[in-house]
Specification:
Number of strands: 16
Largest sheet: 8 strands, mixed
Radius of gyration: 24 Å
Strand content: 5-15%
Structural class: alpha/beta
Length: 447
């Protein structure tokens, strides 16, 4: 779906096509080689572009140079031929970005003390600005608040290059929509929202993404595209909070919330299925809605109450999990102190290694503080990689085999990876708190 560029797009400069610009850009730089950037870089390379994947992380770049992918959605088998052909290469040297036609910024935008941290975007824009030439295109994909592309990125690029956005070079925003571990909806077949600071920029951004994805969706401004991304994630965040809080009430009222959700989901209109869980994780839900709340308070002078409430509900779910586990052990004549607790799943969701902001970290922290002997198993999260921003001291990494399951006083299923043997878990575990409704039996409590 590619409607004509609207006349109301925010102009910068004269928006006239640059005579030096190439009709079909060929050299692409993707700044940031995480699960978003690497997926984009590999897709662009496979589509015929010459791609440089730039990242400041030495270990990441070293692995990529040897064809060792750390992102499940990009297999090493897919990466190696692109490296061999020269279509893709990874590097840390800013000089590798020289001469780009398209540059895409896919760096993290974390929260620091509850406030947006755009330092990675700032550093990337300054670096790219030093290599920016007339006719080139820069696109921001990192999730951020409305106005970032025009109010922050454009001035940084202009200052570093001496060029003017919309007149001398093209600039736009296209929110990333990659869902780690999702084999149905991939980068290539997920519709891509695109925007530009003016009509010429919108056209260039659309042309680029249109060459690597099936469908592009144009919007009238970068601010609209930035808002759309925050809306997508806030929608999920709020609805997950709804079912999470409902789960806590339903348990107290002796109602099976999972069965109620199944029943409600049979309605063919007016209902979307969301499921309870031990909390939210990843980069999106624990962080992105807070950008919207911060922006609303800064610009409109009032808080986004839905976001604040969702943050509160979802943030308290790890505490609720520990409370349910404590109750389950007590019914079986055990105390948490001294109990052997095995956590299954350190990633924030099934079938991925993404452990950023995982609720498993908070759950382990609470259990350790209560004196439990905590171990954890996750076939996707590497043992050498801490599952959260801080190393979980005191948590032993194990395999979810018969020995560990039988030895545990309690097993907590946090991420329902397909690699787990659920028959073995149900058979060998004395007690399981199932936070994902994958198990059944007298020894199973479902969240």
């Amino acid at each position: 779906m590619n409607p004509a560029a609207p006349d109301g797009a925010v102009p910068r400069g004269t928006a006239t096509p640059d005579p030096q610009a190439r009709p079909v850009p060929g050299r692409v730089v993707v700044v940031g080689q995480g699960y978003v950037g690497l997926s984009l870089a590999v897709r662009a390379a496979a589509s015929g572009y010459q791609v440089v994947g730039h990242d400041v992380d030495k270990e990441r770049v070293s692995r990529l140079i040897t064809g060792d992918s750390y992102v499940e959605d990009v297999s090493s088998a897919r990466l190696l031929p692109l490296l061999a052909s020269g279509a893709y290469r990874a590097g840390r040297d800013p000089a590798d970005c020289e001469g780009f036609d398209i540059a895409v910024i896919t760096v993290p935008t974390p929260l620091r003390d509850g406030l947006p941290d755009l330092s990675h975007i700032v550093e990337s824009a300054r670096m790219l600005g030093g290599h920016l030439r007339a006719g080139a295109t820069v696109v921001l994909e990192s999730t951020t608040y409305p106005g970032t592309t025009e109010e922050l990125v454009a001035p940084l690029l202009e200052e570093a290059s001496g060029l003017v956005a919309g007149r001398d070079f093209h600039l736009g925003y296209s929110p990333e929509r990659i869902d780690p571990g999702n084999t149905r909806w991939r980068l290539d077949n997920t519709p891509k929202v695109v925007s530009g600071v003016n009509a010429a920029s919108l056209e260039r951004v659309t042309d680029f993404y249109g060459s690597i994805v099936d469908t592009t969706v144009q919007v009238s401004s970068c601010r609209t595209a930035e808002m759309a991304k925050l809306l997508e994630n806030t929608f999920r965040h709020v609805n997950i909070a709804l079912v999470n809080e409902l789960a806590t009430f339903a348990h107290d009222l002796d109602v099976d919330v999972w069965e109620a959700i199944d029943a409600a989901a049979t309605k063919p209109h007016g209902f979307l299925r969301f499921l309870p869980g031990p909390g939210v994780g990843g980069h999106c839900l624990p962080i992105d809605p807070s950008y919207l709340s911060w922006w609303a308070e800064r610009t409109a002078g009032r808080t986004f109450r839905f976001v604040e409430l969702a943050n509160d509900v979802n943030g308290r779910m790890p505490d609720y999990v520990v409370r349910r586990l404590t109750d389950g052990l007590r019914r079986r004549g055990r105390k948490v102190k001294g109990a052997r607790v095995l956590l299954l799943g350190l990633a924030y969701k099934a079938n991925t290694s993404d452990a950023r902001e995982t609720p498993a970290a908070r759950i382990a922290e609470l259990l350790l503080a209560l004196g439990a002997d905590v171990s954890a198993a996750d076939p996707h999260v590497a043992r050498s990689v801490p599952p959260a921003s801080g190393v979980l001291d005191g948590v032993l990494r194990v395999t979810a085999g018969e020995r560990e399951l039988s030895a545990a006083d309690a097993v907590v299923l946090l991420a329902d990876h397909d690699a787990f043997d659920y028959g073995l878990i149900a058979e060998r575990s004395a007690y399981v708190l199932d936070c994902r409704r994958r198990l059944g039996g007298d020894n199973i409590d479902v969240l």
